[in-house]
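Input/output pair, single chain:
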Amino acid sequence: MATRADDISNWQIVGHDWAVHALARGLAADRVAHAYLFTGTHGIGKTTLARALAQALECTGANRPCGECAACQKIARNRHPDVQIIDGVPVGYKFDDKTLPPPRLNESERRILKIDQIRAVQHDVSRAPFEGRWRIILLRRFEEANEEAANAFLKTLEEPPSHTRLILTARDASLLLPTIASRCQVMALRPLSLAQVEAALIERWRVEPATARLLAHLSGGRLGWAVRASSDSTRLDARRAYLDALNAALIEGRAERLARAGDLAKETDALPELLEQWIGWWRDVLLVQNGESARVANVDREENLREHAARFRLDEAQGALKALRATSRYLTQNVNTRLAMEVLLLNLPGS
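Output:
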């Protein structure tokens, strides 16, 4: 079960070469950390890299991870008995032996990693591997762990069984307890270049070039986000609807905006994504106003962006961006959703 640190093509990871080389060197020298923490924004590739590391650890092929042996195949399908992926559960979710937590509604959905899940992990890691060399636990978005869960997990992290390897992911190490981050080998993943994302979408995922260019710009270098969006047309459809709603609001009067705010407030699950799209729009307007059109994300609406850049003053665009960011923050603090949306829409320029 050899592995080569100089050739990382078998890892099948786009970008993040420095991280893959570091992991491959550790495997080649049989110096594998007991715990890793991969950080970076959502959709940047943390889980993909974690899964590849799990394959490399359990691989029975000649060049780990081979991607072809039974262990690699099982991990790719989330079917390996010794590799678990733990995710947070919806707020208010009640654990039930008969049902699994539902999938995330979107990347912005707030979830909680609970102590019940950590206790289950502690029970599992106490047992020897069933089939592979290691028992591997991947805990996604560990910043979602509540205080009880984080403190309980710290005990496992301090004295993990020798047959266990732990992999955590989080947006930023600063969002975790310092005592947890300090006990992990931290690898901070950075966004890929837009050219890398675009090329990967075309060459590996066979995305039509115009769509690949748009998704690369919208992704901000998050290949995982771009790949998911390329196979889910509802994401681009929703974005189109959100931007159309913003365009309509900007020519409406106060009464119409208040009515629109009431309608939007009813779609609470969609609001985080809507606000993210609107924030991205006003960021692009500011870029155009500052002569940096080449950096805009909404490349399919450049004419509309130029129109808004000319129509609204610089301070109006900055004010809209500030109001949107404040509203996004308020909605995580249990404020009245309708009131927050009414204030936002009335503060947008053009009324």
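The chain has a mean pLDDT of 93. The first helix runs from residue 17 to 28.
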